[in-house]
Amino acid sequence: MFGFLTFGTTLALTDLAVKKEIEARPDGEFPKTVKESGGLIRLHKNHNPGFSFGFMKEYPKLVEMVPVCMLSAVAGAWAYVIGKKGRVLEKTALTLVLAGGASNLYDRLKRGYVVDYFSIQWKKLKKVVFNLGDIFIFAGSVIVTGGVKLIEKTLSTAQVSAAMQIPMGYVYLILPLTGIMMMFYALCFISNGLKNMKHSEAGAN
Predict the structure, then answer these.
(1) For 40-51, what is each residue's pLDDT tens digit?
(2) Is 44 exposed, middle or buried, given 0-12, 13-18 or 19+ CB atoms closer than 10 A?
(3) Would you say residue 178 has pLDDT above 70?
(4) Average pLDDT value over all residues in the chain
(5) DSSP secondary-structure letter at 185?
(6) Are 156 and 166 in contact (CB under 8 A)?
(7) What is the DSSP letter of 129?
(8) Radius of gyration of the chain (CA)
(9) If 15 and its partner were Cys, which of 7, 66, 117, 132 is the partner (CB 3.0–4.6 Å)?
(10) What are residue 15's phi and psi, to 5 degrees?
(11) CA dist 24 to 14, 30, 104, Å?
(12) In b/e form, how buried is each residue of 176-187, taking b as 16+ CB within 10 angstroms?
């Protein structure tokens, strides 16, 4: 239990730390492409008072209450699953959703908006600005949870790969692992981008 609690708390605090750093930077520094990512990651300083794409920003109280209710439900599910033996992927999924949701909810309650700070420069994703909390929620609810269902299904049917003769459930572990790797590399690129901003500012002074 404490391992997952520490993991989730660390993720939430990391996202909040990045948001704090983004907020402290002058508006004129954004948007900024992170060169280390090969141009894939661009940093922004966006304030979103509503849900995704500013939806329902005219109703701030509702925008606050809906996440509180949803996060409470996720916390309840987390508390239930965390006491069970095994079910590591489910625990990981709920921990990710809880961490991302808590970080964004803290933003809404303290600032009145959520700080979104990076975009992925690939096709239609260029138009969407995320934060790490969003990625945690996405990984937990779609990639990791989807991986759990797929792994359970393939393991129950005893499917094996034709070439390697190993259970396909283990092969499909690539889904949750991909989600975790995406979060790790996004964090690395964002961190490098912020460090370069600081170095450029120090050099100018």
Answers:
(1) 999 999 999 987
(2) middle
(3) no
(4) 82
(5) H
(6) no
(7) -
(8) 19
(9) 132
(10) -60, -45
(11) 15, 12, 18
(12) beebeeebeebb
